[in-house]
Amino acid sequence: MKVTNVLLFLATIGSMEICSGYRILGIYPVPIRSHFIIINQLLKGLADKGHQVDLISIFPEKEKLHPNYTQIITLPGELSEIIPRMNIATARKFGWDLSSVADFGYKICENIGNPEFLKLARNPPKDPPYDVIITHMFSYHCYAVLGHLWNIPVVLVSTTSLYPWMHAMIGNPENVAFSPNNLIPIPEGNSFWTRFYNTYVFNMLKFSFFYYSTNQDQLLRKYFGPDVPSVREIERNISLVLMNTYFPINGVKPMTTNLIEIGGLHIQNEGPELEEKLKKWLDESKDGVILFTFGSMMQVETLPKETVEIIFKTLARVAPIRVLIRIAEPQKLTVKVPNNVYHLPWIPQQKVLQHRNIKLFITHGGLLGTQESIYYGKPMLCLPIVADQWTNTRNYVSKKIALTLELMELKQEEFDYTVNELLNNPTYSENTKRLSKLFRDRPQSAMDTAAFWIEFVVRNGKNTMRSPVLDLTWWQVALLDVVLYKQQNRLKGKKGKLYFVIMSLNKTLLFVLFIKLISLSYGSRILAIFPFHGRSHMGVLEQVAKVLAKQGHHVDVISHFPLKEPFPNYTDIIALPKTGTYASMHFKTLTSTENRSDWIYDKMRNMCDYLGTSEIQELVKDQRKNVTYDLLLVHYVCGYQCFSAIGYILNLPVVAVVTTHLYSWMNTFVGNPLNLAISPNTLYGFEKKEMNFWDRLNNVVETYRSIHSYYGRADEQNYFIKKYLGSDMPDYHILERRTALIMSNSHYSYNGIMPKTPAVIQIGGIHIKNDTTKLDENLRKILDSSKDGFVYFSFGSMTLIETFSTEVIEKFYLTFRNLAPIPVIMRAWRPELMPKNLPENVFVYSWLPQQEILQHPNIKGFVTHGGGLGTQEAIYYAVPMICIPLFAEQIFNCDTLMKKNLALKLNYDTASQEDYEYAFKEILSNRVYKKKALELSAVYRDRPLKPSEEVIYWVEYVIRYGANTLRSPAVNLRWWQAELLDVYFFIFMCIALALGIGIFIAYKFLTLLSCRMSRNTKQSKAKHSNGTTASFNGKLNGTKPKSTSKKVD
């Protein structure tokens, strides 16, 4: 085996075996058992996987849970000591009153002063030491201080969707424009006032929590010294958040890389069976059973008597249907229990919900119970009381799997109607069963997903998935400073470029078994259209099609490049006209184009004209009569996505393959955020590691310029679409937003940490290790004999290096000559056109098996133009690079590699001979680049699923559940609505108006005050003047002065 592969094998696969010995500390300091269910299940699952798990909890250990799972500290405290027994009054304080939430967190944090906890914190075990800490996420993040003290990753588990103050901890987008906060009820819809109210509530809750919870800093300093970070700083160093949600239930929205959905992890068909008496009662309930419980924190018997009477009357009326209700303290009831109601102080909820006779679940809308109800396909009546229950309920009602009523405003007629509607209308049950299938259908189980990412942060470092958003202020992330600057420029009348732009292995086996079980029994028919004539891009597209064909689907392909050898289930049905062997770039074309990115647009200007090809016209005509395809797979490249119109005509889901990182305009197709505060424009790149204000401003300008340029060409697409597919076809803007899924040839380890919607799947590297070509024997001898290493030089299939100027090539030649005896393996499409003074250590070939060369143990460096495919191959095989970008995303790729210390970048038209000499010497002699290449390669390879498995799962997912399953609500909003610019503008204008009124009032007040003071001063002076005159005259005459107020005749 090659040396590099051995190193990488030890760094990745080997480490996955070693990870079975991790030592994990779990902390659950809260006296609330319902939320402990998830934490406990997670820790037990990790113990099952071979990890050593220690637990700190407030609940005494009743029995040994697992040989690898040990409770080491039992913290003091009962729920009643922290908050009173939950009733309506105390529950609703946990909504608007964030001081109650913060006080609760402070009381929980007081236990960090527990002697046993302090002893562990100050003297942690060393043989073996802890590798990671897992604790609960709510309002007591003080316990994460152990991660700082021990310098290990901290993983938080949120047992609900994220509360407003949690997003900032990991740089997650708040999605306030279309995602309601989960503490305060918000009206339906996305109107301006709804978004304004949600924005106000969301930020009020967030900043209130930040304000009230700073008192945790006092406890941290008290027990760990004055130099300990604040709780806000500790929060911003969290490595990973596991969240008890899953998008089919909780909605499609963008999420950052280190926020992982594990919704339903607690749902396990384990534990003791139903006790015989209860099982017999359920079995005998042939007319059905209603399960009624408000969980462990809220007691039904504490409700007002009038409310209980209404509930019991309705439940009595549904007989012979029976009711199973949880009543912890029945002696507190003041209302007689109906005959068809069976009450227990505790109910094994999961076991009951999966019983065949359960027809309805009446619940407060808590996430755990409602997830169980959905999992087992039971419709719900939700009576929300507190916190996320409102949001959960609104969500379920919108999906038509539940109905809701206001518990404290319950009316007999409404309650009767609602219960009977849910029992007798099959729509709710059918919808719940459909959602149950979506909830269960995932590429990995929730437990396997959680375990992988926990092990990942241990293997690859606590900051591997840290978002760059955490280094920006909130207004920088929202680009408010950039928006205000643009507004200021507009108001000043500076209508320049800116104004114009703005206005215009085991896991693998399990996965394979899982895929086989859930895959469609007949195999789907897929129409694949790849109209771009770039051979290198076809490498990715062809591999995607082959993966699906190998899975048993029938893939019919339209492209410029029919297969040379047959492949089962892969059929080339139409070969597009040859406009050249492939798209290629001549040096003169490159240097004569003012905007190099425009070259690619011009090269593909007539690509949509292929819609008029007689074979495609005949295919569309036949399919209109009888559609035989299940899905359209199409290549989205640069500015031409017109072939997705065929999906509209045939009513097919459209799945796109992007062979690069997403271009800026593609994000809007599926409601993906642009992330302009942290992510440079794919077409322009950015050399510095962090962007200042001017960099972000420029990024916004260039991004919207490219979007404007793209939509400026949309009319061309509309022209061809209407010409060849019918004048009644919708506008292209509508067609592009029908995209069900985008598979991007990218990966966060390389392209950066940023939020993305579930409709964007990263399949970077799918083409790697699928090249079956072997090295030529003469070339192999050269490489094997190169004991000092060799350099590989290739600018891919689109760039003709032999057409470069003699001056540039001479710089290469001189540099290569100075590298001797190190050989340089060079690719040129036509070697005979290269200058004749070729150095003896340079070997030029018209074609080379790139992957075979990059994985050779003797390779020292790769000279590349920065194309996405070649750079990913170099990353995979851990080869340092010298990047010489030419156009399009190559600049972005090279800048990214340079910032990761994996490459050096040269500008082909400005770099001097000394620059070339330095770059080669540095890459070949400085071990830092090889070290960084190995580190990045390990992270790049370390994935829960292979790219091919991602393709299979998500394409089949779209086929199973339809084109809109992954659709984000953001797609239905205008860009300024999604960015809340109208809301921010309204707030800004309100503040400006308030300030203006305040200034006006102050001005009027000061003016009035000034006038009065001036008048008083004049009167005072007049009095003083008259009095002084009279006194002076009196003294002269020897008489007293006369009164000045006396009337004069």
Identify the notable features of this structure and list them briefly.
4 domains; 45 helices; alpha/beta; Rossmann fold; 1049 residues
Description:
This is UDP-glycosyltransferases domain-containing protein. One of its GO terms (molecular function) is UDP-glycosyltransferase activity. Residues 1020-1049 are annotated as: Disordered. There is one protein chain. The chain has 1049 residues and is α/β, with parallel strands linked by helices. It has four domains: 22-261, 3-Layer(aba) Sandwich (Rossmann fold), CATH 3.40.50; 276-347 and 356-440, Rossmann fold (3-Layer(aba) Sandwich); 525-744, 3-Layer(aba) Sandwich (Rossmann fold); 777-947, Glycogen Phosphorylase B (Rossmann fold). The protein contains 45 helices and 26 strands. The protein has a seven-stranded parallel β-sheet, with helices on one face. A seven-stranded parallel β-sheet has the order 16-15-14-17-18-19-20. The longest helix is centred in the last third of the chain and has 57 residues, at 981-1037. The N and C termini lie far apart (128 Å).
Proportion of beta-strand residues: 5-15%
Q: What is the CATH topology classification name of the largest domain?
A: Rossmann fold
- Helix share bin: 40-55%
Assign an overall shape. globular
Number of strands: 26
Mean pLDDT: 83
CATH architecture term of the largest domain: 3-Layer(aba) Sandwich
What separation lies between the terminal Cα atoms?
A: 128 Å
Number of discrete domains: 4
Helix- and strand-based class? alpha/beta
Number of helices in the DSSP assignment: 45
Question: How much is the radius of gyration in Å?
Answer: 35 Å
- Biggest β-sheet strands, sense, barrel: 7 strands, parallel
Spatial order of the strands forming the largest sheet:
3-2-1-4-5-6-7
* Spans of at least 5 consecutive residues with low confidence: 6-19, 493-521, 1041-1049
CATH class of the largest domain: Alpha Beta
